[in-house]
Design brief:
2 helices; globular; binds zinc ion
Length: 155
């Protein structure tokens, strides 16, 4: 996910943008993780940006000369393909605050928390995923058409 050109460094009022997450869902727990690096978004606590580029000089995230920071989009449409490339993707909106960089397509932020999460009905176990994601304490909704029933082959 790239936020595009014209990067401007900002602080100030929090803003809300679109986010795509990878969902970790098993018997133990259901959690949101970042699509790019798999970083955990902990329930009840902000996700804090951390630079994972090992070859670069240590710096605070986001850094204008790097790609780090929590990527949040101005429009879901721009990054829709990230939803399509995995069968474990959910999406929604996230509040970002603290230092951030703004590009034409979105932001790279220092801190974020989900505002609402939408679980595509086509996701395996969508109802259970949605119920478990309530742990984040924000609205969670199953959206879209239900998955087609699996074909039953009668021998
Ligand atoms: Zn960095």
């Amino acid at each position: 996910m790239r936020i595009g050109r014209s990067v401007v460094r900002l602080t100030g009022e929090p803003v809300v943008g679109w986010k795509i997450w990878r969902v970790e869902h098993d018997e133990a727990r259901t959690r949101l993780r970042s699509v790019l690096y798999g970083s955990l978004w902990p329930p009840g606590r902000p996700a804090i940006a951390d630079c994972k580029k090992l070859l670069r000089k240590r710096h605070e995230a986001p850094d204008p000369l790097c790609e780090c920071g929590i990527h949040v989009a101005k429009s879901l449409r721009e990054w829709g393909h990230y939803l399509a490339v995995g069968d474990d993707r959910v999406f929604g909106r996230a509040l970002i605050w603290g230092e951030r960089l703004e590009g034409e397509l979105g932001w790279r932020a220092a801190a974020a928390y989900p505002v609402e999460v939408q679980v595509p009905a086509t996701l395996e176990d969508a109802g259970s995923v949605a119920a478990e994601l309530m742990v984040y304490g924000v609205p969670v909704e199953v959206v879209g058409a239900p998955a087609p029933a699996k074909e039953v082959v009668v021998a």
